[in-house]
Specification:
Elements: E1 4-7, H1 13-22, H2 53-65, E2 72-76, E3 79-88, H3 93-96, E4 109-117, H4 126-140, E5 145-148, H5 165-170, E6 174-179, E7 182-188
Parallel strand pairs: 4-5
Antiparallel strand pairs: 1-2, 2-3, 3-4, 5-7, 6-7
């Protein structure tokens, strides 16, 4: 199976929305209203439960149109089969403003927030492919640390939305901190490598 991973861009807005409208949470409808906006909200200032699905969809669409949302779509046979939300940690208020996740190296830390793989496409290596490209993408954004938050004791596909710990360990991450209910894992990304707008390094 060929997996193609593409960085999110305004040109992929229709694909993103179609995936989250129809596929991403087709077996988990309670989360269908998120549109992967949850970690872009500062929960100390805004009540997430008061937000509607339409508001989240509109907010995400605006960010994508302006090129301000970071992440990666995985395609199989021309259709979206998975998603990874990853970008600078400072871009995610829910992480950057969390006292339990505070570190002095915020400016150079990239967060891998969550994964979503389509029902019927799971356990085929899509999340692993997304992780590999996302980690490289964080380095291209100037990050020198990749950080993620696998949950402890997750027993369902939905529960593993941060990605399973074993996947990170296989990819060279190590446990940086232990919190109640999750591990914080990190991987050094080496020297900063910035990509200009033409894509040349």
């Amino acid at each position: 199976m060929d997996i193609e991973v593409r960085p999110l861009s305004p040109a992929l807005l229709v694909d993103y929305l179609e995936y989250f409208d129809n596929t991403a949470f087709s077996d988990n409808p309670d989360w269908a209203g998120c549109y992967c906006y949850y970690y872009l909200v500062d929960h100390s200032r805004e009540d997430w439960e008061a937000r509607s699905s339409a508001e989240n969809r509109c907010a995400v669409a605006g960010l994508i149109c302006r090129g301000e949302m970071h992440g990666y779509l995985a395609y199989v046979d021309g259709s979206v089969a998975g998603w990874c939300h990853a970008g600078p940690k400072a871009y995610f208020p829910a992480f950057a403003n969390d006292e339990d996740l505070a570190d002095a190296d915020l400016a150079v830390t990239g967060s891998i927030a969550c994964f979503n793989v389509a029902p019927g496409r799971r356990r085929l290596g899509i999340a692993t492919a997304l992780l590999e490209v996302a980690t490289t993408g964080l380095a291209d954004l100037g990050m020198t640390i990749a950080e993620a938050y696998p949950r402890e004791g997750a027993s369902t596909d939905a529960g593993h939305y941060h990605g399973p710990l074993e996947m990170y360990l296989r990819a060279g991450f190590a446990v940086h901190r232990q919190l109640d209910g999750c591990s914080v894992v990190r991987k050094g990304l080496g020297a900063v490598r910035l990509v200009d707008r033409s894509g040349r390094r």
